[in-house]
Write a structure and sequence with these properties.
By secondary structure, this protein is an alpha/beta fold. Helices cover 45% and strands 16% of the residues. It has a 7-stranded parallel beta sheet with strand order 3-2-1-4-5-6-9, with helices on both faces. Strands 7-8 form a two-stranded parallel ribbon. Strand 4, helix 4 and strand 5 form a beta-alpha-beta unit. The protein is elongated and about 85 Å long.
Length: 269
Amino acid sequence: MRFEVGAAVVTGAASGIGRSLSARLAREGARVVMTDVDGDGLACAARELTRDGADVSTFVADLVAEKAVEELAATAYERLGAVDVVCNNAGVVGPVGRPLWEVPLDEVRGVLDVNYWSHLYVARAFVPRLLAGGRPAHLVQTASMSAFVVGAGSAAYAASKHADLAVARSLRADLRGTPVRVSVLCPGRVDTPMTRGLVAPRDATGATTVGADEVARTVWDALGSDRFYLFTNADAADRIDAQYEDVRHHLEAEPPPPVTVNRPSTPPS
């Protein structure tokens, strides 16, 4: 650890990765504001963590609304005084296993609202506050291996994760030279309620599965460091190598011959 984590905010905290992130941060001594759209699930998770000695509080919000995100940020600073870590983790899988042209557009928009727009709103709300604090802080954006590897039937989800990766990379460049660090979390398949029972092609999910606590450990170990890409699954390197080998194959391919267009001659005027 390069700095002390005294206070943190975790979105998508009712279950899965978000719950495990909250638990790990609290176990290490941080006070945590947990937020989720699922109020009942959030209250249940918070009760369980509090029973184990965690110092957590909850804020129920639908983060696809920019106003709700601003209220979250204001409330978090009011409760915590300062924030050291923001885990921008809310996410949905959405329609997987169907080709893009068969997926209703409102379902596509729903995925982008949560996985891209809510992450954008959270970054816009918290980064200026983190900078104003003038102290080391860390923003963790939860993307996915789908930010690199795209399988059949996953257009909406993969597009949202590509967008989130681009935001994280831009934020990293924007914040270079400041005390605020940025990491992008890129898990493969994780055993969470969101993915249990999910049927998707292997090329979309990978061959390995990890637990949410393993993901939280990866994040904890990176906090305060300059590690940007946080991978969690053992097959991550092979999957990325395969993708970039495909890119290199097309880069190195012999360019096609130029196309000759025969245009009719223009008669003299």
